[in-house]
Amino acid sequence: MTIQIDLTGKVALVTGASRGIGAEIARVFARAGAHVFVNGRNEQTLQELCSELGGNAEPLAFDVCDPKAIKEAFQKLFKQTKQLDILVNNAGILDDALIGMVTEAQVERTFATNTFSVLYTSQYGSRLMQRSSRDSSGNAKGGSIINVSSIIGRVGNHGQAVYAGSKAAVIGITQSLAKELAGSGIRVNAIAPGFIDTDMTRTIPEDKYKERMSSIAMKRIGTPEDIANTALFLASDLASYVTGQVIGVDGGMLI
Amino acid sequence: MTTERLKVVFAEALGLPAEKITDDLAYNSIKEWDSTAHMILVAALEDTFDVMLDTDDIIDMSSVAKAREILKKYDIEC
Ligand SMILES: NC(=O)c1ccc[n+]([C@@H]2O[C@H](COP(=O)([O-])OP(=O)(O)OC[C@H]3O[C@@H](n4cnc5c(N)ncnc54)[C@H](OP(=O)(O)O)[C@@H]3O)[C@@H](O)[C@H]2O)c1
């Protein structure tokens, strides 16, 4: 049996889609037929990805740390499409430090990027979804919000209190919004990736890299596609009864 | 004065008869206009008048009169 996921007619926004996991999610969504707005801070990089994806993608550059920029981006989306079906909150940064050396600036930047942004995009995104979430007969068509958390947000890690806190908060936000928005047909789920091959993990010192690899039961690093396929499932009607969940995609990693 | 169009949107969104929609009808003063109904009302106003309201305006929309005043900022006379 072949199952094909078809997102034709759906409009998606993926934050942090200029590279890594977000770019792969945008590719997979566009291939499934969705119209994808790809976000990042650099218009040029986003343009390049959009050229690769053909007509199914367009850039929506803004800094997720700036609530005013988020508002303006959603106003643009509102004017242009009046529709949003899928929102992927993926933009994120990793900045490790032992607790004694954590700076205020680091805390603020990490939480602004990884956590506060999720609240603001979900606020505007869910409003847009609520408006486009009923079909002509008034039935909820539904929307899907997918938040990219982390295995670190679930179990914590040495030297990662700030990152872990910012990602654990994303799980709380996910579970709360799932309850609040279920009545509007909007599902809210999180993905908790393990150790994935992107720019974020390429800068890790060699000994730490080896340690991480040896903690993965499946004995391979994850690929952005592993995460994108899970996002595709959560975005699709196959997951129409799935909400408030945190799906670990980590090859059986133990931290 | 609450005009016809605004009255209709409020009445439909809050599930009230149109004669109950007066200028001084206030948010949270009746059970039909609670926070859940408020978000439904906002969506209805946005649909009808084709705008996207700021979060601050949604929070400030404390009465029918205030709603009209806020919509005026978006060049909507109603
Ligand atoms: N890689 C892993 O092993 C792993 C594991 C668990 C969780 N995650 C999570 O997965 C997500 C994606 O990570 P990744 O590995 O793909 O990282 P990455 O390769 O470093 O990419 C990060 C993306 O986020 C964007 N971004 C960062 N700050 C932004 C801001 N202020 N405004 C808008 N966009 C911003 C970047 O775009 P620009 O720099 O172009 O603006 C880029 O597209 C993150 O939330 C991360 O925490 C990753």
Can you describe this structure?
- The complex is a heterodimer of chains A (255) and B (78).
- Chain A is α/β, with parallel strands linked by helices and 255 residues long.
- The radius of gyration of chain A is 18 Å and the shape is globular.
- A seven-stranded parallel sheet of chain A has the order 3-2-1-4-5-6-7, with helices on both faces.
- Chain A has one domain (11-248): 3-Layer(aba) Sandwich (Rossmann fold), CATH 3.40.50.720.
- Chain A is 46% helix and 13% strand.
- Chain A is built from nine helices and seven strands; from the N terminus they run βαβαβαβαβααβαααβ.
- In chain A, strand 4 (86-89), helix 4 and strand 5 (143-148) form a beta-alpha-beta unit.
- Chain B is an all-alpha fold and 78 residues long.
- Chain B is globular.
- Bound molecules: NADP nicotinamide-adenine-dinucleotide phosphate.
- NADP nicotinamide-adenine-dinucleotide phosphate binds next to helix 1 and helix 7 of chain A.
Could you write a compact summary of the structure shown?
The complex is a heterodimer of chains A (255) and B (78). By secondary structure, chain A is an alpha/beta fold.
Defining traits:
heterodimer, A: 255 residues, alpha/beta, Rossmann fold, 7-stranded parallel beta sheet, 9 helices, 7 strands, B: 78 residues, mainly alpha, Non-ribosomal Peptide Synthetase Peptidyl Carrier Protein, Chain A, 4 helices, 54% helix, globular, binds NADP nicotinamide-adenine-dinucleotide phosphate
Largest sheet of chain A: 7 strands, parallel
Strand line-up in the sheet with most strands of chain A: 3-2-1-4-5-6-7
Mean pLDDT of chain A: 95
Overall domain count of chain B:
1
N- to C-terminal separation of chain A? 37 Å
List the domain count of chain A as a whole number.
1
* Count of alpha/pi helices of chain A: 9
The helical percent of chain B reads 40-55%
CATH architecture of chain B: Orthogonal Bundle
Mean pLDDT of chain B: 94
Number of continuous helical runs of chain B: 4
- Ligand inventory: NADP nicotinamide-adenine-dinucleotide phosphate
Identify the quaternary structure here: heterodimer
**CATH fold-level name of chain B:** Non-ribosomal Peptide Synthetase Peptidyl Carrier Protein, Chain A
Total beta-strand segments of chain A: 7
